[in-house]
Amino acid sequence: MANDLNLWQGIGRLARDPDVGTYGTDGQRAAFTIVCNSHYNEKDHAEFIPVTAFGKLAEIVGKYLFQGSQCYVSGKFQTRKWEKEDGSGFNYKTEIIAREVQFLSRPKNSNQDAGNGAPAGENNYSGQSNQGNYPAGNGGYGGPSGNQAAEDDLPF
């Protein structure tokens, strides 16, 4: 099989405070949306990009980022699929699974003594998503086996 690349990088501002919660029995998850603005053909355009972080990265995002915070996010595209509650079909959501988040503006705990207000070492955090351990319920967070197409379903 060929070596493919699934990488997304962007800088934007949080559209609202992160939604921090748990999955499974002890995993932490932070879902947030960043807004990336661009200017094209003399028009402004905003792209709203859903991002999810897991584990320690989710904890740090929930603690230090808030609506309007500017940050850099690096991660991968992932599409989740889950059955609608009424059984009439499926829901799909494409999002970025964050592997690294850098704070580019002052976090909400700005009384800290680091250059941008974050505790030393926490303004640039890389973490592996703990994505292999969450259950199939809870809004479609089904782990790699629950949201990746089977090899037989791939068109190539």
CATH homologous superfamily annotation: Nucleic acid-binding proteins
Helical content class: under 10%
Give the N-terminus to C-terminus distance in angstroms. 10 Å
What structural category arises from helix and sheet content?
A: mainly beta
**Architecture, according to CATH?**
Beta Barrel
Sequence of secondary-structure elements: EEEEHEEEH
Q: From the alpha-carbon coordinates, what is the Rg to the nearest angstrom? A: 17 Å
> Strand arrangement, largest sheet?
1-3-4-6-5
CATH class category: Mainly Beta
Strand content: 35-45%
Describe this structure in words.
It is a single chain. This protein has two helices and seven strands; from the N terminus they run ββββαβββα. It is mainly beta and 156 residues long. The chain starts with 7 loop residues before the first strand and ends in a 9-residue tail after the last helix. The chain has one domain (8-145): OB fold (Dihydrolipoamide Acetyltransferase, E2P). A hairpin with a 6-residue loop joins strand 5 and strand 6 (90-103). It has helices at residues 55-64, 143-147, and strands at residues 8-14, 19-23, 27-40, 43-54, 70-83, 90-103, 124-126.
Concise synopsis of the structure shown:
The chain is mainly β and 156 residues long.
Structural descriptors:
44% strand; OB fold (Dihydrolipoamide Acetyltransferase, E2P); mainly beta; five-stranded mixed beta barrel; disordered C terminus; 156 residues
